[in-house]
Write a structure and sequence with these properties.
Helix content: 25-40%
Distance between the termini: 14 Å
Strand content: 15-25%
Radius of gyration: 21 Å
Order of helices and strands: HEEEEEHEHHHEEEHHHHHEEHEE
Bound molecules: alpha-D-galactopyranose
Number of helices: 11
CATH architecture of one domain: 2-Layer Sandwich
Length: 404
């Protein structure tokens, strides 16, 4: 289907042109939110909802992309790209391409353009392509549709045969989102999309980028519940939270020389110096310190198959994100509450940046139908929204897809 769409959009392929396909998954974070940009720990997993690009390489630096989910294609010349803080995004229309469409700030293809810009800035060998994008990741739901598009774009842009380690791919894609698109994100989403592994969660140290893969207990499924409440990271308080964390470090460093980030802060030291911090800043710091400890405890509980402990850790994480970090929402709280009441739901909490989006649940396989039924009855009734339940397989990270 994607191949046919490619021919319809960009015309029949010249004889020499080969169609290639790359895919990059979305992610769900099992535990550890708002810790990545504090150089802490996270525990995401790549999920079977993913983004694909079918493409034909070009000999020049023109990129033309169309999406099966948007009527507006995008195009740009790789050499023309440059971030422009004042203008929002600095990508320019490919003026010499007769098929180029007028761009407006916030176009979906900015993620492709930003990735091209980031790879070019690192002097990597890249070339243009004509491509069709398809995705099963719901957009704006906190399952990292943008990170998946960046990682898939990087794979399509890199000239044939050039392979990058997952951690380099992730860092380049993060740079695209941060310095080109203008969302000051951490590295978790891109890392999970690039480096995920089938049936394993990824314990990532966001300072050293060391990883450990962690198995899930037998019979436990990961289920994502989408609240149906869209969140827009760019316009959210995400950057404010980052600034509050930086403020905590700046205020504490006077008493604790050597403190580089909240990753270095221990609970006893926070308790001792809490009076130095304004109330909201102290709460943000307390969340990050306790969440880091919970990530490590969750990895151990998964390995030990300790379901009670997992339930407790997820509940604590949710409460901390709601009360201390203040990034939950009534819809997320209701979704967690509804799920927790169902026998066989082992653990439930909000996941990702917050402000709407999804919850993540660990559920005994037998209880998945009950969760679906109760969400569509209880959650929808209580919130007036349309909740969606996705049991998700955990899959490998991004890569090429065989086309024969
Ligand atoms: C978003 C960001 C990530 C991370 C999470 C919160 O998904 O892109 O880097 O900060 O929010 O854990």
């Amino acid at each position: 289907m994607l191949m046919a769409a490619l021919a319809t959009e960009f015309g029949p392929a010249p004889d020499s042109a080969r169609v290639e396909i790359v895919r990059a998954p979305g992610r769900v974070n099992l535990l550890g939110d708002h810790t990545d940009y504090n150089e802490g720990f996270v525990l995401p997993a790549a999920i079977e909802l993913d983004t694909w690009i079918a493409f034909r390489r070009r000999e020049d630096g023109l990129v033309r992309v169309a999406s099966r989910h948007s009527r507006e294609p995008g195009s740009f010349w790789i050499d023309d790209l440059g971030p422009d803080r004042e203008g929002g995004n600095g990508s320019r229309v490919a003026a010499t391409d007769p098929g180029a469409t007028e761009r407006r700030p916030g176009h979906w293809s900015d993620y492709v353009a930003g990735t091209a810009w980031s790879l070019r800035e690192s002097a990597l060998p890249i070339r243009g392509f004509d491509g069709i994008v398809d995705s099963t990741i719901p957009i704006g739901s906190g399952l990292s549709s943008s990170a998946a598009l960046e990682i898939a774009s990087a794979l399509a842009l890199l000239s044939g045969g050039h392979i990058l380690a997952a951690r380099s791919l992730a860092a380049l894609a993060q740079r695209a989102e941060r310095d080109y698109v203008g969302v000051n994100c951490g590295i978790m989403d891109q890392f999970a999309s690039a480096a995920g592994r089938e049936d394993r969660a990824l314990l990532l140290d966001c300072r050293s980028l060391d990883t450990r893969y962690v198995s899930l207990p037998y019979g436990v499924r990961v289920v994502v519940c989408d609240t149906g409440e869209k969140r827009e990271l760019r316009s959210s308080v995400y950057n404010t939270r980052r600034a509050e964390c930086a403020r905590a470090v700046a205020l504490l460093v006077e008493r604790m020389p050597g403190l580089c980030s909240l990753r270095d802060l221990e609970a006893v030291w926070l308790a001792r110096h809490r009076a130095l911090l304004p109330g909201n800043v102290a709460r943000r710091a307390e969340h990050v310190v306790s969440e880091n400890a919970r990530v490590l405890a969750t990895a151990s509980a998964l390995e030990a198959g300790d379901l009670d402990e997992l339930g407790r850790l997820f509940a604590e994480s949710h409460a901390s994100l709601r009360d201390l970090y203040e990034v939950s929402s009534p819809a997320l709280d209701t979704m967690v509450e509804v799920a927790r009441a169902i026998p066989g739901v082992v653990a439930a909490r909000m996941t990702g940046a917050g402000f709407g989006g999804c919850t993540v649940n660990l559920v005994l396989a037998d209880a998945v139908p009950a969760l679906k039924a109760v969400v569509s009855r209880e959650y929808d009734r209580r919130t007036g929204l349309k909740g969606r339940v996705y049991p998700v397989a955990i899959v490998d990270g991004a890569g090429p897809v065989p086309t024969t």
